[in-house]
Amino acid sequence: MTMNKSVNELDRVFNPRTVAVVGDKKEMGYMWLKSLSTFQGKLYSVQIDPNELAGIEALGVENHSSLLDIPEPVDYVVIAVPRAVTPRIVADCVEKGVGGVTLFTSGFAETNTEEGIRLQRQLTEMARAAGLNLIGPNCMGIFNPKIGVRHSPDQYAGEGGSAGFISQSGTIATFFGLAGALNGVKVSKSVSYGNAIVLDSTDFLEYLAQDEQTKIIGMYIEGLKDGRRFFDCLKRVAREKPVFIWKGGDTEAGTRATASHTASMAESPAIWQALMRQSGAIKVDNLDEMIDTAKLLLHAKPVAGERVGLVAATGGQSVAISDAFAKAGLRVPCLSQDSYQELASFFDIIGASYQNPFDVSSNLRSLENVLRILDILDGDENIDSVVLEFSIFLLARWMTGPQSLDGFLDGLARFKARSTKPFLTVLVSVHMEERASEVRHKLTQRDIPCFPSFERGAGALRKMVDYYRFRQAEGIPV
Amino acid sequence: MSKSQILVNARKEGRTYLSEIESKELLRGAGISITPTKLARAKEEAISIAAEMGFPVVLKIVSPDVIHKSDAGGVKLGLGSEQEVADAYDEIMASVKQRQATAKVEGVSVQQMARPGVEVIIGMSQDPQFGPVLMFGLGGILVEILKDVSFRIVPLTARDAREMIRDIKGYPVLEGCRGQEPADIPFLEDQLLKVSQFVEQNPEIRELDLNPVFAYSDGAVAVDARVVLESEG
Known about the structure:
The structure holds two protein chains of two kinds. Chain A is an alpha/beta fold. Chain A folds into two domains: 292 residues, 3-Layer(aba) Sandwich (Rossmann fold), CATH 3.40.50; 173 residues, Rossmann fold (3-Layer(aba) Sandwich), CATH 3.40.50. In chain A, the strands form three sheets. Chain A has a six-stranded parallel beta sheet, with helices on both faces. Chain A has a six-stranded mixed beta sheet with strand order 7-9-8-10-11-12, sandwiched between helices. Chain A has a six-stranded mixed beta sheet with strand order 14-15-13-16-17-18, sandwiched between helices. The longest helix of chain A has 20 residues. Chain A is elongated, with a radius of gyration of 25 Å. The two termini of chain A are 22 Å apart. Chain B is of the alpha+beta class. Chain B has two domains: 78 residues, 2-Layer Sandwich (Dna Ligase, domain 1), CATH 3.30.1490.20; 112 residues, CATH 3.30.470.20. In chain B, strands 5, 6, 7, 8, 9 and 10 form a six-stranded antiparallel beta sheet that branches. Chain B has a four-stranded antiparallel beta sheet with strand order 1-4-2-3, sandwiched between helices. Classes of the chains: A alpha/beta, B alpha+beta. The interface between A and B is medium-sized, with 16 and 17 residues.
């Protein structure tokens, strides 16, 4: 596949060999130089304040008094100087011929002040005239964990994942990376792009669409510069990779916030909804939904069917799980006669039942029986997806030693490996948050998606099914 | 009148609002099902057009100055004979003259009174970010009070048209309920696609309304139409 010019240029920015930070200082806790301490290429600092030089030297970073003094080409620059100085530094970037720039500095159009708006216009004109790949201003820029390009010292480095993320907010980009990793959704490349005066979401979408490392793409968008171009691009990309969109500012109050956050204009929620339906993008409304659905798309087998087999640990939960999945528009059908016959041969029905839903109760004590139930559901022609809830109480009571818990989870992993249908688990924390987190982490390590509530599992499955139905309707292989 | 003539005339007269007759002619040219409507400049002409079309007919005032035709007493429905058409013509002229003495009156429009069906509306407006957007909904009170409408950005695909009709909460009404005639949904889908195509080919159109459209078990027909052009400049 040949890359067009802008994609080619962005590839240099997202995969830099040299990075320069302009204006990091002690007052900011050297956040940029510390974040980039994991960078595998060559890192430079540009700082003219003599009081800062010792601190930068202590971090082991080579400092220059101007970008133009750096003795080699620079692929990626982070600008963190006060806003009044930004035009001069951007001019240096143009002269140096850098690959791209993240303008971290804020205080532009989002402040709705004369000075801010004037400066933003000046930077836009400069960057556009020079063809400079400018990200921001008012943003955190690029995160590429594989090569250690970070924008927060809390982020991980070394191992990249397969989830691309395009975010108008820096915090949400950071949260997606951190919360996603806990859920087995690791970032391939992400970008926070703020006011989007030159590069906008569409440019990044085009880039990640062709990035081989990126299998799914999440977006947090407050506003667009060119809706038509975005729509055309999204229609193309969503057919190739799942694209999740969380549109910020979906309410009047939210719109007030997007204006002061990234100077974004109000846009109609109804039109956005239409846009997502038409393009086949997956609509999510918050970070949890984004990560839940990403988790399922990355770690569950694809399915376009709506019929679920539900296995709950106890009676009340078997009612609750059915209501939650049915409310998400999924169906909870009866099993085939063969399945019922086989269940009758071993299932202990004292205090338990196996309609669909299942209330397994004491059957949960036997890993063998649990796996048998799961295998029956996996083989049943009436079922498209299999969901298992296990109770934190029963886990605590029956699986006290780490041995038996791990043995139980390994059994589930073996089932997942041989199963042909999506397999989801639900573990409600109740009062044992830490214990539940520990078990969820073990499941994540075993590549088994786990959700903290029935509703979140059901919501994610609904969105996954809708995505594959879209592919089916469009004649794209599921 | 051809499409370009209609647009040229409107521009020449500095109008962005097309008359009902112009709007309908434009849309009929795009293959959209719409009641044939003719201009009568005098009473005798109204009578002869009505006789030719077949009764019952509807008469509406044609005047660039009268925007709310019903409020001005400018609409008469269900006229079953030549005499009724003649009387209605006089009443319309008298009423408009009384309420808007300075209005420039061109005559009346004459159209066949369509048999009632399930009322739906199809509209188009320009979104500042995404350009032309189509709207579909059930007509009358459902759209006004419940805002039970769905949107799609132009151009629509066949899947978009199919889903957009099924997206509205009132969809079961279109399937027919309590003995009511079901709507010809494939026909409505086709109408949406034709409007989408028309809008795509005519970027000078700012707004468009087919309201109401009567949907039947075999086809559908728009009985009123309104087209607004982008202002020049």
